[in-house]
């Protein structure tokens, strides 16, 4: 669909409002169907309007806040906003647009975007998977494990309670953890920098590799054995504050910064 999708707590229902400019006769393009325990809400212009000049449409869907259902939202070019729900498995997919979720909980969250922006804040899921081809990913205040992957764009992970795994082909990665007890962190970048801001008392095992770039840190690192004597790049491993969680950082082209948060 094209436009905006807003899903918020309330009495069950779906409404469609906005404007559609077309040279064809308008027909019924909002449908709500129920098959067993599955409720499907669809807005499909292509089925009824073969020639669509301009569309500015918003779909508002309301469900009980404690619905505890599996939720799937997909759109061609749509902004999606979801807040304030207790859910199960959630899958949000869009080709282009901003996908935002806040104040939700569930078992698993998957967000995929071809060219768009992903914003997740204050959520509680066992597993979070966010990926985009060209766009930004921003995950804040999340419980559970976080996996993020991007082809071209910036990835930011802030105050995630579980393990973090990030891969990025072309773009920078920023990870901020204010809490002392951190999970394992794995970041792999082809072209771009990596920056970690961690609690000064965080204890971790650090492995940092950069083919073309250096390591900048204000932590004291206890190095086991000998450091690599590479002429260009960085290859270092050691313990910080006695060691603890594993932090594995690697980039082909870019620098690595591991700094203490204020």
Features:
262 residues, 17-stranded mixed sheet, 19 strands, 2% helix, 69% strand
How would you sum up this structure, described in words?
The protein contains one helix and 19 strands. The protein is an all-beta fold and 262 residues long. The chain has one domain. It has a 17-stranded mixed β-sheet that branches. It is elongated, with a radius of gyration of 22 Å. The model has no long low-confidence stretch (mean pLDDT 87).
Short description:
The protein is an all-beta fold and 262 residues long. It has one helix at 45-48, and strands spanning 2-9, 13-22, 30-35, 38-43, 52-63, 71-83, 89-102, 105-152, 155-160, 164-170, 173-177, 185-191, 194-198, 204-212, 215-217, 222-223, 234-240, 245-253, 256-260.
Count of helical segments?
A: 1
Helix content: under 10%
* Cα separation of the termini: 44 Å
Q: What's the main sheet like?
A: 17 strands, mixed
Nearest-integer average pLDDT: 87
Question: What's the order of the H and E elements?
Answer: EEEEHEEEEEEEEEEEEEEE
Q: Which word captures the global form?
A: elongated
Low-pLDDT segments: none
- The gyration radius over C-alpha positions equals 22 Å
Summed up, the domain count is: 1
